[in-house]
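Quick one, C-alpha cells below. Sequence please?
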C-alpha cells in the first residue's frame, strides 16, 4: 500500500503505515496524525466515558479539515 498524499507529491516509494479513519486512504508516517478519542458507552439511560482514551489515525487533509475553525 502506498501513501496517497506522497503519490500526489510525485513520491511513489513511500509505504503507507495506516488507513485514515475518515476518508479511507492509505497514509505514511509523515502524513499520518494519531489522535486520541474518548470512547463512549451506553449504560442504561445514560452514557459513560472510558478512562483510557482510544487512538485513531487520520491523514493530514482530514486532520486539517477537523481542526480548522
Amino acid at each position: 500500500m502506498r501513501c496517497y498524499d506522497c503519490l500526489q507529491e510525485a513520491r511513489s516509494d513511500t509505504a503507507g503505515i495506516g488507513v485514515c479513519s475518515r476518508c479511507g486512504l492509505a497514509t505514511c508516517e509523515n502524513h499520518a496524525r494519531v489522535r486520541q478519542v474518548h470512547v463512549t458507552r451506553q449504560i442504561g439511560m445514560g452514557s459513560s466515558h472510558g478512562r483510557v482514551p482510544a487512538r485513531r489515525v487520520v491523514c493530514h487533509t482530514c486532520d486539517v479539515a477537523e481542526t480548522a475553525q
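DSSP finds two helices and six strands in the chain. The chain has a mean pLDDT of 88.
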